[in-house]
Write a sequence for this structure.
């Protein structure tokens, strides 16, 4: 074997001596080698890609007829250390395309002529995808449209929405005439309804589905959500008391009546729309009888009102009273 050849002990002794006697130089050489390798790696020219937001500078009197390309893919080259930082800063990159000298109509826009803002001057742009786009410029038009309320969620159990009022209820839009022509209304952002138990005013924004359309001016929209309990009570005093049977006359001219039902109906109900009628069974004998709401009464009181079963009679006051026979 090679290890047993004559002279190997002498070579081995020389290597051990070199390591033992000159190790500081060996360490320094190793450190220098690592530094040179790191510098070469950092200054090596490489390519990298990133997304860039596109901003279009248009003439004041013209607008884009459709949504144009919003982002392009840029490829750059440069030192590895500089390229490595590109990803961290790509959110700030913006390609500004100047179209202020263009006229109305279909135009071809070359992205290569644009200026990428916030891109390090140590990087070189080697490609853009796409490198151009075709757009249509139209004269700017204005139109006033209705504003429609959009809601999110539902009111708690026992409450309902009576109505939503918007202030303003119309907004002025600016955009291509071809788009505004068929646009009659836009919606608000979703108005949060969940958890509301009383009339509340909320500030909301306006949702524009087409990016080529803008609000002509900043508009603060206030949405007033009116709610009510789905069931409430109301007490009417001096409800007229009448007997259907002319042979019997009540000792009272009116009653106090407590009603329960939808809040809207109760508010709309006028006192003159309610009447208490006394129903005396045929063949009833005696000179005086007791009248009340309960079935056990000799004669019953029936409260009439225009909303039928939607409104319930809870009580009458007095709960019982006397009905006398009329003497011929």
């Amino acid at each position: 074997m090679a290890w047993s050849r004559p002279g190997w002990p002498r070579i081995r002794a020389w290597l051990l001596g070199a390591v033992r006697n000159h190790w500081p130089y060996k360490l320094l050489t190793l450190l220098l080698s690592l530094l040179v390798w790191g510098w070469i790696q950092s200054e090596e020219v490489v390519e990298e890609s990133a997304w860039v937001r596109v901003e279009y500078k248009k003439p004041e009197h013209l607008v884009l007829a459709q949504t144009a390309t919003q982002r392009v893919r840029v490829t750059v080259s440069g030192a590895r250390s500089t390229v490595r930082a590109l990803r961290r800063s790509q959110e700030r990159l913006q390609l500004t395309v100047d179209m202020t000298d263009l006229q109305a109509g279909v135009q071809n826009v070359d992205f290569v002529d644009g200026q990428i803002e916030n891109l390090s001057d140590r990087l070189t742009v080697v490609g853009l995808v796409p490198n151009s786009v075709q757009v249509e410029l139209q004269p700017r038009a204005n139109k006033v449209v209705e504003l429609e309320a959009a809601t999110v969620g539902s009111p708690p159990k026992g409450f309902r929405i009576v109505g939503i009022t918007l202030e303003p209820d119309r907004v002025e839009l600016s955009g291509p005439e071809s788009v505004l022509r068929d646009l009659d209304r836009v919606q608000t952002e979703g108005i949060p309804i969940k958890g509301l138990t009383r009339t509340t005013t909320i500030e909301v924004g306006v949702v524009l589905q087409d990016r080529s359309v803008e609000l002509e001016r900043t508009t603060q929209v206030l949405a007033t959500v009116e709610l009510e309990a789905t069931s409430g009570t109301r007490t009417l005093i001096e409800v007229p008391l009448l007997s259907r049977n002319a042979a019997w006359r009540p000792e009272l001219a009116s009653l106090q009546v407590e009603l329960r039902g939808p809040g809207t109906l109760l508010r709309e109900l006028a006192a003159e729309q309610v009447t208490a009628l006394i129903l005396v069974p045929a063949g009833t004998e005696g000179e005086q009888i007791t009248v009340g709401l309960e079935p056990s009464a000799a004669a019953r009181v029936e409260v009439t009102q225009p909303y039928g079963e939607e409104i319930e009679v809870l009580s009458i006051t007095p709960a019982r009273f006397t009905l006398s026979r009329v003497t011929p």
About this structure: The two ends are 151 Å apart (CA to CA). The first helix runs from residue 8 to 21.
